[in-house]
Amino acid sequence: MAMKMAVEEINNGSALLPGLHLGYDLFDTCSEPVVTMKPSLMFMAKVGSQSIAAYCNYTQYQPRVLAVIGPHSSELALITGKFFSFFLMPQVSYSASMDRLSDRETFPSFFRTVPSDRVQLQAVVALLLNFSWNWVAALASDDDYGREGLSIFSSLANPRGICIAHEGLVPLHATSVQQLNKVFDVLQQVNQSNVQVVVLFASPRAVYSLFSYGIQQGLAPKVWVASESWLTSDMVTTLPNVARVGTVLGFLQRGAELPEFPHYVETHLALAADPTFCASLNAELDLEEQVMGQRCPQCDHVMLQNLTSALLQNLSAGQLHHQIFATYAAVYSVAQALHNTLQCNASSCPASEPVQPWQLLENMYNMSFRARNLTLQFDDKGNVDMEYDLKMWVWQSPTPVLHTVGTFNGTLQLQHSEMYWPGNQVPVSQCSRQCKEGQVRRVKGFHSCCYDCEDCKAGSYQKHPDDFACTPCKHDQWSPEKSTGCLPRRPKFLAWGEPTVLLLLLLLCLVLGLALASLGLFIHHWDSPLVQASGCLSTLFLQAAEIFVESELPLSWANWLCSCLRGPWAWLVVLLAILVEAALCAWYLTSFPPEMVTDWLVLPTEVLEHCRMRSWVSLGLVHITHAMLAFLCFLGTFLVQSQPGRYNRARGLTFAMLAYFIIWVSFVPLLANVHVTYQPAVQMGAILFCALGILATFHLPKCYVLLWLPKLNTQEFFLGGGPKEAADGSSSGGDSSGAQ
């Protein structure tokens, strides 16, 4: 009826084909390929003929028709499409949506006024993602339409993280025991998979078999995402107790409203009761009965009371406007192509020669045309781009009513306030709960949607909510556990305000203060016996050597060496020691200068900036001179036996060298085990503690005597003669030359 209305509009108007009238023949395919091919062959035959003649060139062949509208189903379109494509006969379907029909090599003359199933399934995937339904079952009818739809859905769903718990095919006719067992197995698998959402891409007959048997067996209510073919089917919507199946959602192409169509149907069906109307139809028959056989006598007497109440209700409510408009638009596409081929103007179509189907086909490629208030265009695959409406079944009567709850035009937009859910709660269909922020999925089994949530460790983060592995941070970034991003590392070095540095500064001030105080005190008491007995400002090595010489060498040698060690030669030795030390330090700093190092690994949240020694061997050579002198000092004083009743100068030197060795021997394992961040502080601390140890063991006791025990600062306390007099046991203690 929609095609008849479109043809009458075109014939009664002058916009497309002025001065011309379109004719048509209608045939019922009965959804059978054999029945469909009979009129298809007749369309390609010449007028008055029942067969197609064989020619080497069909360029000038004039078949009975210029274009074919239909058929309705994709299975029939696959058959007729190949046949008409061989003759380059334009064919426009108003409902065949299989994606395979977009293949231009196989179907070069096929067009349709509905989008491909691939677009519809893209909308279905967007719907599942919007509600986080990633654990679903996918069922399809056991025919070409269902199998292809199931394959496309799987290819679209899997890359988007949607897991298909079960795939199944539903028989078209559940009449035999074997077919009933298949339906039972499908229902059992759906229940065992523990899914709440089922994508059902099937023909109405398969859905009828599935739902009728499922209602009898007590199928638990589910959310059914319907394909366009059965969403508005009377066969399904009028099924008894169909509301028990649960919630039904599906997409329908929008199209344009045809508000006058219900009135048009009622008016024309009312004419069937008039005998004169049927007589006029017989007089206007274009097809000879000898070609197509006897005309159906009941077809001309279909009246309103012959239509089902559901169909009348759907017509009045506009539930089928998408199918009606698609048929209406198919007629207008052929009329527009004929308009372009004949080069029609506002008053006439001037072409004089008959039009061939292939000429009409050339003008249909990428053609745009207008149907009501919509402008449509065939793309390079013969499809049109149309928006989808998301429909939901709402029960306001024994049969459901379709409510629009969203749209899809590449992006899904939902009207959540218009949706009706059981218990006002959106169903959840997930194998595993959503992971929290900072967690990734560790897959269990074969399905990526079944997983355990695992925290991201420090130094890594969750980049996307559906990640299966944590993403490591860059070398200049860090992150705590369970992070969704990384933070920049801050530079770490020994800054002035750190507690460690402040302690080192306090220790340095203490050492400098004690050293300066000792120096000042010694200078103030320069001529006192204690300062003179302590060697004044000579080095510890010279004092140790002097003590060793006095105690262990013969008297003649001892007097000569002591005079050298106490004379001007002592300052030369001090200067030489300073120059040697300076030379070693200069060689080390010029040949092996420390390098600035930026270490990204040693600290978890910061980047360490420190100076790294290039050669530990060279540093050891610098320090080995100190160690050798300290060892000689210790050896020279430790082996000396103090004389009774005389001040023991060797004792202070011995303890000073012990302090030196204890500190530096402890320094080596401490430096090896301490964190690299604090190694410079350990080195500085060792130097300061070494100086403090020498001060505390050698100089500070003498300062104590100078300040608080001045009665001991006398020659009698440090009484002694030459180096050998005490050893000889002289009771007089020697003459005054021993104190010089």
What can be said about this structure in brief?
With 740 residues, the protein is α/β, with parallel strands linked by helices. The N and C termini lie far apart (141 Å). 43% of the residues lie in helices and 14% in strands.
Question: Hey, roughly how much beta strand do the residues contain?
Answer: 5-15%
Write down the domain tally: 4
Helical proportion, percent range: 40-55%
Roughly what is the average pLDDT, rounded to an integer? 82
Radius of gyration equals 53 Å
Q: Biggest sheet: strands, sense, closure?
A: 8 strands, mixed
Task: Assign the structural class, choosing from mainly alpha, mainly beta, alpha/beta, alpha+beta, or little secondary structure.
Answer: alpha/beta
Number of strands: 22
Strands ordered across the widest β-sheet: 5-4-6-7-8-11-12-13
The geometry reads as elongated
The N- to C-terminal Cα distance equals 141 Å
Task: Give the uncertain stretches in residue-range form.
Answer: 549-554, 721-740
Number of helices: 23
Protein name: Taste receptor type 1 member 3
Main location: membrane
Domain G-protein coupled receptors family 3 profile: 572-716
GO molecular function: G protein-coupled receptor activity; sweet taste receptor activity
